[in-house]
Design brief:
β3 (about 85-90) and β4 (about 90-100) form a beta hairpin. About 25% of the residues lie in helices and about 35% in strands. It is globular and about 40 Å long. It has helices at about 5-25, 30-35, 50-60, and strands at about 65, 75-80, 85-90, 90-100, 105-115, 120-125, 135-139.
Length: about 140
């Protein structure tokens, strides 16, 4: 009988676990984990550590703020079971919300970016559970 070396078995198990973890859709995840694991292409200003800090502060009942990648401060404005709202920079706000279809059968994620200037410019993007862009609107 051929015996697989222990190290190879461990590596295969770790690779399989990583594959499963990375390909899981966001089904069943709460707003904290959806926010923390939002792809960097969607929220490039905050790295994962800054997102974790914001969530930890909010869950501890403290005012959340973290340093962003531009060296400025991002503040957590609001957090509940379906919404996280941030003051990304002095000139922009960003929201992440979990929403459901009217039938309640399908969940999707919506982001709103507010660019604050003399007139407010809003960019809304709707994603499915696999972070595939479904719709984008600018108002």
């Amino acid at each position: 009988m051929h015996k697989i070396p222990r190290k190879a078995t461990i590596l295969r198990t770790m690779a399989l676990f990583a594959f499963i973890l990375c390909t899981l859709p966001m089904t069943g995840k709460n707003i904290d984990s959806v926010f923390v694991y939002t792809p960097a292409e969607i929220l490039p200003l905050l790295d994962r550590d800054a997102r974790l800090d914001l969530v930890d502060y909010a869950n501890a009942g403290m005012e959340g703020q973290a340093e962003n990648r531009m060296g400025g401060t991002t503040r957590l404005l609001q957090k509940n079971d379906t919404l996280i709202s941030l003051q990304l920079t002095p000139a922009s706000q960003w929201e992440l919300s979990i929403r459901f279809t009217p039938e309640g059968t399908k969940r999707y994620v919506c982001t709103h970016t507010y660019f604050l200037s003399p007139g407010t410019y809003i960019r809304e993007i709707i994603f499915d559970e696999n972070w595939s862009k479904q719709e984008e609107r600018i108002r």
